[in-house]
Design goal:
By secondary structure, the chain is α/β, with parallel strands linked by helices. The chain contains 8 helices and 15 strands. The protein folds into 3 domains: 119 residues, D-Maltodextrin-Binding Protein, domain 2, CATH 3.40.190; 89 residues, Periplasmic binding protein-like II (D-Maltodextrin-Binding Protein, domain 2), CATH 3.40.190; 68 residues, 2-Layer Sandwich (Alpha-Beta Plaits), CATH 3.30.70.120. The structure holds adenosine monophosphate.
């Protein structure tokens, strides 16, 4: 059964989403960037290119079966869609930020009647209501960080990743409302009709997302070092150990390693006498 997948057509989530589709083995027809719609050569899929912020409602209505968008946008919409998968990119947080000199250190310090500028009015409203604060929310479509300087807001509720935009605008983060990253969402009705095909597609995307933080490491190591190596390179099911023709004292190991541990692992391997260390990218990890 044919599946319609919505992908952000521009903005922060666009490029990586397309890369992941390609890495998952979906051959999207060329020139996709300018198109609204593309077919996939090697599967029964079509891809629609939409604004990340519109994807949630298109999926909710069932106009498309699945979509890649930000978790923040799903939460803000309040719409009942199935979140099938975290994608591991587009990480950010929805935070409360105030001018550095405002004298507010935490959300409790926000006075009743404060003017809040945000593109996330539903989440902001819920957050302050939970704290028992009566704030006055102005909905804007972007550039929240300039509103305190313009005198139209006392504080903002906005997405933050590195925090550098806040710093440039002399704002400081005083509370985190929600964490976000890119997610794969699905229409509940579509899941009932073509759940199997949709789960296959989600699992292909997951295999790419899972490989994202991993590397494949190969090295020739002295047999006597194997016990020590197992301690810091556990791999998925333990390292694969292979004989090298004509050598009794050295074996080859192959192991999947967290990207963050590569630097340390290579140093340790070298100290244990490893040679011929190779580190390679992994496109997909299918369990
Ligand atoms: P777009 O407006 O099309 O660029 O997409 C915005 C989406 O990108 C947001 O809803 C988030 O899910 C995601 N995102 C990731 N990091 C950030 C960030 N630092 N600022 C804004 N959006 C971000």
């Amino acid at each position: 059964m044919s599946i319609k997948l919505a992908v952000p057509n521009k903005g922060r989530l666009n490029e990586r989403s397309l890369q992941i589709l390609k890495q998952a083995g979906l051959e999207i027809e060329d020139g996709v960037e300018r198109k609204l719609y593309a077919t996939v050569k090697n599967g029964d899929f079509s891809v629609m290119f939409l604004r990340a912020s519109d994807i949630v409602s298109f999926v909710h209505k069932g106009a498309v079966d699945m979509g890649i968008t930000g978790r923040d946008l799903v939460l803000e919409s309040g719409l009942d869609v199935e979140v099938m998968l975290d994608m591991g990119f587009g990480r950010c947080r929805l935070s409360v930020a105030v001018p550095e000199e405002a004298g507010m250190e935490e959300a409790e310090d926000v006075p009743d009647g404060a003017l809040v500028a945000t593109s996330f009015p539903n989440m902001a409203r819920k957050y302050f209501a939970k704290l028992g604060k009566k704030v006055d929310i102005t909905v804007i479509s972007g550039a929240a960080e300039v509103t305190p300087r313009l005198g139209v807001a006392d504080l903002i509720v906005d997405l933050v990743s590195s925090g550098s935009t806040l710093k440039t605008n002399h704002l400081k983060e005083i509370a985190v409302i929600a964490e976000s990253e890119a997610v794969v969402i699905a229409s509940k009705r579509s899941l009932e009709e073509k759940g199997e095909e949709m789960r296959d597609l989600a699992s292909a995307l997951r295999s790419v997302a899972d490989a994202e933080d991993k590397k494949y490491l190969m090295a020739d190591v002295p047999v006597t070092a194997l016990d020590d190596i197992r301690k810091f390179l556990p791999g998925i099911a333990g390292p694969t150990i292979m004989n090298i023709v004509g050598r009794d004292d050295v074996v080859a190991i192959h192991v999947v390693v967290d990207k963050s541990k590569i630097y340390d692992s290579v140093n340790k391997l070298k100290r244990l006498g490893a040679t011929g260390i190779l580190i390679m990218p992994i496109d997909r990890m299918v369990p």
